[in-house]
Amino acid sequence: MSLSFPKEKIKILLLENIHESAVENFKADGFEVEKLSSSLSEKDLLARAKDIHILGIRSKTQIPASFFESAKKLLSIGCFCIGTNQVDLEAAKKSGVPVFNAPYSNTRSVAEMVIAEIIMLSRRLGDRNNELHQGIWKKDSKNAFEVRGKTLGIIGYGNIGTQVGVLAESLGLKVLFFDILTKMPIGNSRAMESLEALLGASDFVTLHVPETDSTKDLMNSTTLRQMKKGAFLINASRGSVVDLKALAMEIESGHLAGCAVDVYPEEPLSNTTQFQSELQKLPNVILTPHIGGSTEEAQENIGKEVSDFLLRFINRGETSLAVNFPKADLVDRKESHRILNVHQNVPGVLADINAIISSLGANIQGQQLSTDSEIGYLIMDVDKNLSDQVKDQISKLSTSIKTRILY
Predict the structure, then answer these.
(1) How many domains in the chain?
(2) Does residue 255 share a domain with residue 164?
């Protein structure tokens, strides 16, 4: 298969020390890759924007709408993590840029860390560890409890939440969950009718929700007070979900017995930046630097998974796993050229495109159109001898956002 845009001319930039498995995957397919160990500032990223075809990031790099105004060659973005809130997905879509992520690859890593923190908080292992490092021997069973027989409340019963529930039950915990969507319970877990009901019944509460307007400060002074006295809060979801000042106050007052936090409203851009939080130096508080998914296994899986999605888009035009784009995947056909077209979703676009095909006397060997409320994404296989003319005329339509011959 001959690509009209030679692989050696496609520039792939990977930031934030994305796992080498992604680099190896791209190189095995014939692409050259530039990999940087850190994120780039908005200014430096904009300076690189005009030359990038594929951009890979993790959670630190911010991609605002202004980036797409400069990144005219950009074909796609890969978020080598679960979240995509660091990218302006709407601006990406309107620019004809599909965004891919890794919704499953670090599920086990996060779930295992949450279980470890439940036990550490219940036994106050963080405090005991710190004391021994200071030469203080404090052998005491007061306020140290087994987790068996206690109740875990899971807020957000998705991929990670369900895994946490399965592992928690194996330790003898009773599992409750609350989700805004109806979810089928796994094992003996039980859905709660409201957030307040879950908070009032749980000894441990763990958060596994996305960053949205509705989840901002979900755990605030009101909801934190609704938790049982002596309960524990764990947040490995998004930093915006918890009001840290309110959480610190509830721990200082003794209403909550401790917490474990892995994500923060504002996080350092590099490992050399000083970190500060209201939760520092409070008793039975475990603070970790956004490492829920940072295991060798998870990062290797993420690197492979997202690069696979990107390669399927680069080589075939497939968007079935994009988070912001109409889903399309057309079977490859020999003896044809593939045209990809992103356009405004208004009435008559497909009729205009088919009129062009008809006027040129071209033959469509395969065609798939997928739309959402704003854009349409068309994959079309046409005769090789007329593909350039078809592409040029489709590009001139006022409704076209991005058109190219893939091969």
Answers:
(1) 3
(2) yes
Catalytic residue among 58, 128, 208, 290: 290
Confidence of residue 3 (pLDDT cuts 50, 70, 90): low
Active site residue 290: yes
Residue 6: pLDDT band with limits 50, 70, 90: confident
Pair 124, 225 in one domain: yes
Average pLDDT, the chain: 95
Return the HEC string of the chain: CCCCCCHHHCCEEECCCCCHHHHHHHHHCCCCEEECCCCCCHHHHHHHHCCCCEEEECCCCCECHHHHHHCCCCCEEEECCCCCCCECHHHHHHCCCCEECCCCCCHHHHHHHHHHHHHHHHHCHHHHHHHHHCCCCCCCCCCCCCCCCCEEEEECCCHHHHHHHHHHHHCCCEEEEECCCCCCCCCCCEECCCHHHHHHHCCEEEECCCCCCCCCCCECHHHHHCCCCCEEEEECCCHHHECHHHHHHHHHHCCEEEEEECCCCCCCCCCCCCCCCCCCCCCCEEECCCCCCCCHHHHHHHHHHHHHHHHHHHHHCCCCCCCCCCCCCCCCCCCCEEEEEEEECCCCHHHHHHHHHHHHCCCEEEEEEEECCCEEEEEEEECHHHHHHHHHHHHCCCCEEEEEECC
Specify the pLDDT at position 1.
46
Residues 84 and 139 in one domain: no
The predicted-structure confidence for 196-246, as pLDDT tens digits, reads as follows 999 999 999 999 999 999 999 999 999 999 999 999 999 999 999 999 999
Q: Are residues 37 and 135 in the same domain?
A: no
The stretch 379-400 carries a mean pLDDT of: 95
pLDDT at residue 155 is higher than 60? yes
Residue 344: give its domain's CATH number.
Answer: 3.30.70.260
267 is catalytic: yes
User: In terms of domains, do 187 and 222 share one?
Assistant: yes
Given 267, 297, 333, 374, which residue is catalytic?
267
For residue 94, the enclosing domain spans 1-106+295-325
CATH number at residue 211: 3.40.50.720
Assess whether pLDDT exceeds 80 at residue 4.
Answer: no
Q: Which of 58, 238, 338, 343 is catalytic?
A: 238
Looking at the structure, do residues 362 and 373 belong to the same domain, yes or no?
Answer: yes
Query: Do 168 and 263 lie in a common domain?
Result: yes
Quote the pTM value.
Answer: 0.82
Q: Looking at the structure, tell me whether residues 49 and 92 fall in a common domain.
A: yes
Among 287, 309, 336, residue at a domain's last position:
287
Q: Is 238 annotated in the active site?
A: yes
